[in-house]
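Suppose a colleague, Dr. K., hands you the sequence of a protein chain of 175 amino acids and asks what its three-dimensional shape might be. Before reaching for any lab equipment, you can write down a predicted structure in token form. Begin with the sequence itself:
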Amino acid sequence: MRKFIFLTWCVLFSTNCFCAVKLGVYLGPTIPMGELYKFLNTGINVHTFLNTKVLLPFELSTGIAYHEKKTAPKIKLISIPLVLSYVKNFHLYNSYPVFFKTGLGVMFETISGLDIGISNYDPVFVLGLGTSLRKKRVSLLIKITYSFVFQRYINLAKYDGHFLSFNIGTYIFRY
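The predicted structure, expressed as tokens, is then:
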């Protein structure tokens, strides 16, 4: 019983385990990959994220991405992902800290155009790799993210969504 109480105390009140919160924002281009590259232009995305560390480091992120069809008629794709990711931080020898993230979530999509109006949600899988450059109190975050969106739930969809994002961001709040 004493071991259980001691372990619980260490987990709850350890600065390494209990609570570290980071709130930030990313901005960057999103490139459709595979068959979608033939049809969609490179889009832009804005993401906000909340990193927490309560026993395990997790990130909850949401944002918005905008794409247009390359040819006429112009059709717009607006997607809003909501993803929960596990984040692993590590240091390479004499380098900046590197993080790897993998997560699952849902992608809310709206396709609009001339006479088309489709709203839908699909499962999304995310892999990311990035680094943070910190100078005094300012942090610059650089991240590359691959997203796989299973888009078979849209009646007109012929292909799943593969997207590659290059993002630059910063922390808004750190605790």
